[in-house]
Amino acid sequence: MMEVYLDNNATTMVDPQVFEEMKPFFCDIYGNPNSLHRFGSGTHPKMLEALDYLYAGINANDEDDIVVTANATESNNWVLQSTWIEQILNGDKKHIITSEVEHPAITATCKFLERQGVEVTYLNVNEEGVLEADAVKEALRDDTALVSIMWANNETGKIFPVEEIGKICKEAGVIFHSDATQAIGKVKVDVQAANVDMISFSAHKFHGPKGVGGLYIKKGTPLMPLMHGGEQMGGRRAGTVDVASMVGMGKAMHLATNTMALAYEENHVRMLRDKLESEILKLPDTIVIGGRENRTPNTTLISFKGVEGESMLWDLNQSGIGASTGSACASEDLEANPVMNAFGSDSELAHTGVRFSLSRFNTEEQIDYAIEQITKAVERLRGISSSYAYAPQKHVSGL
Ligand code: 7TS
Q: Could you tell me which of 234, 179, 222 has the C-alpha nearest to residue 201?
């Protein structure tokens, strides 16, 4: 049986080239980078190279900071909790603006801050699943401390108008943070062009290792240290640096964001995604949630009328295909997906969405196999669905 991994928005395979770069830092060059001897300083060239790759990958200015964190969840928590302590508890602001379709690393942290007395506005997306920049403009208040809007949505792949939002925030003098976790390696992320003050990311979403991510911080942006202790990461996040992870993330960023890599994503990955989608859409009563415009090239979120998303995943898993119903982070509860609810769609739609997310490691042969298996699963599940009369009823004489 062929195995086809189509859940790359949950996590990706580590690129073998990344793995090779990481290996020496476990048993050979294992010194503490802060030590004065060669075992420690031997790590420096590759750490510096990793930083160069990270800066180049998002077009950061040399004077800005990129702090290596554990993941995007940590970076997002850091930004929001710092905003609360620095600007709200110890300042004169009260308000944060975000969207209803952020990852829980943002929304759950905002809910926590609301319990501490912070006022949060959750903006809704339009019927195409996109947050409109004007909505941000209208929600801004004199006491707004932060706007946090994702670069691309993890469920639909929809790309949000970060440049426009960045401009609005700059004019208003409000700090703009964007969770770019699903954008890096899929679309161009240019922090200067977007006028963004901070972005979060996780290496494992672009073929780097798990457990390492980053926060980009534009020079002059107020931010409390995340961890107090040693001088690592300029004193912003103390604790001995995980060199292997940092080097791996740097290499992964380089491999994912150079011009050729983005062109490949745009051509090869988009071609496979579009083929998968177009073939699936030939099935009746099947739609792409949010529509097909303006998305990351690797993602499609499809609703199959009459088919419970979870049942579909079960069938696909039996055929060797890994997909997802919305975010894996939320898959332990069978609540309707909040992202789909945010579209104002009916609850059936919210329960029938299946997300397929591709990567540069998928092949056309895999996609052909996936199309075949998805078609089979939909037909089987509709055949046994009490709410969907799709399968031609076999007339059995005498019954
Ligand atoms: N932000 C976004 C936009 C994400 O998509 C995710 C993970 C995170 C933050 C958290 O990343 P972590 O590395 O800190 O865990 N998103 C998903 C997903 O869509 N399915 O599984 C995980």
A: 179
Q: Answer whether 105 contacts ligand 1 (Cβ < 6 A).
A: yes
What tens digit of pLDDT does each residue of 172-217 get? 999 999 999 999 999 999 999 999 999 999 999 999 999 999 999 9
Of all protein residues, whose CA lies closest to atom 17 belonging to ligand 1? 10
Ligand 1 close to Cβ of residue 182 (< 6 A)? yes
Domain boundaries, the chain: 4-12+267-383, 16-257
Domain 4-12+267-383 top-level CATH class: alpha beta
The CATH number of the structural domain formed by 16-257 is 3.40.640.10
For residue 295, the 8-state DSSP code is: B
Which atom of ligand 1 has the smallest separation from the CA of 150?
Answer: 3
The tens digit of pLDDT for each residue in 300-347 reads 999 999 999 999 999 999 999 999 996 545 555 555 566 666 665 556
**Which DSSP letter does residue 146 get?**
E
pTM of this structure:
0.94
Q: What residue type is assigned to position 168 of the chain?
A: I
Whole-number Cα distances in Å, 60 to 3, 83, 198: 38, 22, 10
Catalytic center residues: 329
CB environment 213-232: b (16+ within 10 A), e (fewer): bbbbbbeebebeebeeeeeb
